[in-house]
Specification:
The complex is a heterodimer of chains A (263) and B (70). Chain A is α+β, with helices and mostly antiparallel strands. Helices cover 49% and strands 19% of the residues of chain A. Chain A folds into 2 domains: 2-50, no CATH class; 59-261, no CATH class. In chain A, strands 1-2-4-3 form a 4-stranded antiparallel beta sheet. In chain A, strands 5-6-8-7 form a 4-stranded antiparallel beta sheet. With 70 residues, chain B is mainly alpha-helical. Chain B has one domain (17-68). Chain B has helices at 7-27, 41-68. In chain B, α1 (7-27) runs antiparallel to α2. Classes of the chains: A alpha+beta (263), B mainly alpha (70). The A-B interface holds A 26-28, 30-32, 34-36, 39-40, 43, 47, 50-54, 56, 171-173, 175, 178, 200 and B 1-5, 9, 13, 17, 21, 29-31, 33-34, 38-44, 47.
């Protein structure tokens, strides 16, 4: 692959040099044909150099390196036997305003901890307490990449903004998926549900592998679902739970439902 | 010793290049599905738009010349 890129770069440079020579020669000989040839070569040489991709990694390589870490996370949660609700906590729970973490309660239907209780364990990568544990979500780096691409933090956006910008980031900017639909459903009682439909995601195979072994990982989500949950929790400033994740048999479509919890 | 192309030659060349770039940019847009082309699509779109703008500027100059000239 490296040879391929170097070859493309060398070809572009040769085109640029030949084009410049042709342009100079056309001025000396006053030849229109040489001028057009020179202009074309120099222009396309420069364009080919400019539009070269920044960095690309083979998809299989990415999946092979990502999959074990998700499996480890899965096994760790099973080992610790925290079987309660999985909640994405917003930055207001932490001292660092950019932090988002997952809180897994020991038992089902227990209340969320207070920001003061959470801040005691904030800096630990895996913080275990008798009531629950704090984990760094698998989609944290992806969400940071999305923020970088957006040019602002999700904290400074709102849900409407997120609905408009997230599909553009997914499809056009980072090309993570072929399509992303985000739909908000307000039941006017105490919670808002967000439905996300991701078509042909980049991590399709990894997601399927990670989802199968544990029910809990479904609530944490794969890297993409987790990144969306982080974006929602940051934009709304409220805790978020992934209530449902469905992947089609071929892995080409992922549907995830997020519940924004009113405190 | 002078550059053999006139302003209008450059204008024509810009028009053809702009069309080629705009069509390519539209065809490989991620909104129509993923392609295996390993190029920076955003940069290509920017180049296409820049070349198109340059062509439009030459058109504007041409119109201005027609209006101003007696």
């Amino acid at each position: 692959m490296r040879i391929g890129i170097d070859f493309a770069q060398a070809l572009s440079i040769i085109m640029l040099i030949l084009g410049t020579i042709a342009l100079v020669a056309s001025t000396i000989s006053t030849s229109t044909i040489l001028a057009f040839i020179g202009l074309g070569l120099a222009f396309w040489g420069a364009i080919l150099l400019y539009i070269r991709p920044e960095e690309y990694t083979k998809k299989v390589l990415l999946e092979a390196t990502l999959s074990p870490s998700l499996t480890t996370l899965n096994q760790m949660i099973q080992e610790f036997a925290y079987k309660g609700d999985v909640t994405y906590l917003p930055p207001k729970y932490f001292a660092d305003p950019e932090t988002t973490k997952i809180y897994i309660s020991k038992h089902k239907d227990t209340s969320l901890p207070t920001p003061e209780q959470v801040q005691k364990y904030e800096n630990q990568p895996v913080a275990r307490t008798p009531r629950g544990m704090l984990l760094t979500p698998p989609g944290i780096q992806l969400s940071k990449l999305l923020e970088k691409s957006l040019g602002t933090s999700f904290i400074r956006t709102d849900l409407k903004n997120l609905q408009q910008n997230l599909p553009k980031l997914f499809i056009e900017n980072l090309e993570i998926a072929e399509n992303l639909e985000i739909r908000a459903e307000d039941d006017m009682t105490k919670s808002t549900t967000i439905h996300a439909k991701i078509t042909k995601p980049f991590y399709a195979d990894t997601f399927k592998e990670a989802e199968e072994p544990s029910q809990l990982t479904g609530s944490i989500g794969g890297p993409i679902c987790s990144a969306i949950a982080i974006a929602i929790t940051k934009a709304t400033g409220k805790p978020v739970r992934i209530t449902d994740t469905k992947s089609s048999e071929d892995g080409n479509t992922i549907e995830a439902s997020y519940e924004i919890i009113e405190e | 010793m002078s550059f053999p192309l006139t302003f209008w030659d450059i204008s024509l060349w810009l028009a053809i290049t702009a069309i080629v770039l705009l069509i390519t940019s539209e065809l490989i847009s991620p909104y129509y599905g993923k392609t295996n082309l390993l190029i920076n699509k955003k940069r290509l779109r920017n180049v296409a738009l820049t070349v198109s703008t340059l062509f439009l500027i030459t058109v504007a100059i041409r119109i201005a010349t027609i209006i101003i000239s007696p």
